[in-house]
Amino acid sequence: MPAPTLDAATVARLAARHPLLIGDLRSNHAGETGAVMIYRGILTCSRDAAVRDFAARHLKTEAGHLRLLDGLLEPSQRSRLLPIWRVAGWLTGALPALAGPAAVQVTIEAVETFVDHHYQEQIDRLPETGEAGAVRALLERCRLEEVEHRDEAAELLGAGRGWLARLWGGIVGRGSAAAVAAARRI
After folding, report:
1. pLDDT band, residue 4 (cuts 50/70/90)
2. Is the pTM of this model over 0.85?
3. Is the pLDDT of residue 163 over 80?
4. Residue 173 backbone phi and psi in degrees, to 5
5. Closest to 179 (Cα-Cα) out of 97, 88, 66, 108
């Protein structure tokens, strides 16, 4: 049996059986928009070759996720707060890039830790088969790529996490959660 086609019409049909789906996908779209901007902020402000390589590779992945999600939501279903997420994302990348490689890695580790849990919650609510299963598989693919980003950042960061790094990581994680809560609704 061929894989179901995933598009905005399919998602609209699925939303009748999965009432959280549109809000979840809206928050994912907003999050991937922010992620693209995080890496653009890093690339704008970092002069470190390794950080720039890291950011360029991850930007390509995040842009791919955003393209996938663009196809699942009608423009009217996307967050009306996207301009805010673009600015917030850019600043979330740019500010740590100015502080140095460790700050960038702390930021990415914190964001991707949140994203891993965020996607997993959605995946767990969807059945494994049919059109909903196809959405679930797409989200799982994105989640696994985000986990790779998190793990790479953690490996580059190493074991040392001082109080300032822990504080910044906590702020980034809480900011991600607040952004998702707003994007689900607006």
Report:
1. low
2. yes
3. yes
4. -65, -45
5. 88
